[in-house]
Amino acid sequence: MRRRRWGWFGPQRNEPADETAAATGRQAMAQAHGWHYVPHDQRVIVGWPRTALPPGPVGRVCDAVFGDTHGRAFTVFDYAHRSARTGQGERLLVWAMELPGRAPYVRVRCPPGDTHDIYVESGDTDFALRLLSTEVREEIRRHAFTGFVVDSHLLIHTAAEGGPEGIEDTLKAMAELIEHLPEDLWSS
Fold first, then answer.
1. Do the beta carbons of residue 87 and residue 64 sit within 8 Å?
2. Boundaries of every domain in the chain
3. pLDDT tens-digit profile of 99-126?
């Protein structure tokens, strides 16, 4: 009897080659660094602000890697979802890294190629202004991030929001960004 694999859009006989390659690559990366790999874990996104992920129905977490790097706990995963724009299935690479303390919701957007404008959405204007110190703005530009979300204890970034190429380079850039956050953010 042949087992059928259930995917995001119903039963599938075979996984697409790129999804299989992503799973194999993530497993190998996790093993090489002493991190942990799980094929699916919806608990990762429980409690996340909805704006941290693409609009539309909630998708699923695939090929998740958990671990510590550069002194920070992190999670990297593919977010398989149905695009609200096209209606087609898509996969988006997502990174989440632990912050030194708890923070209110802040969404940061920087137009691609714009070296001056940084837009912020937050219910706590004072925190958002302190978050975007000169050093933090320089790190955002240096790493070419075009957006991220700070919420609760996480810095959340997606591949659709610029940044370095590659999982490990993005983890390093996120850790460097966190290192430049003002220390007084966590004392209030």
1. no
2. 5-186
3. 999 999 999 998 877 667 889 999 999 9
